[in-house]
Amino acid sequence: MPKIRVKVTTISNGQENNYEINALLKKDKIIYNEPDPKKTKVIFDYSNNLLIRKNKDLEMVYEFNLEKETIGSIEVKSLKRYLNLNIATKKYEVLENNLDLIFLVEEEEIGYKLEVIK
Question: Is the pTM of this model over 0.90?
């Protein structure tokens, strides 16, 4: 698994967050840990168009499809409950493991950009 450096940008509720972090490139997946206290592991699976985020409290799986709405799920581990959310993909562009994604979760627009730093 080659190690790479990525710049991650998220935009939600008008607030932009970005950071650079080490990641692993494994087949069609980029895997990294967010710089948060919960040590959230993020996997972007290019072959299945999935964004997976998991930590000790939650596991979130969002599937993206420009042609139709999909159902995302969030598992609240302490309650052993699942929440299903409607996902509408507005933009999905991939070029050499770089990703530019805009989607709606219910009615909230979220931007997610992943750039491999060379």
Answer: yes
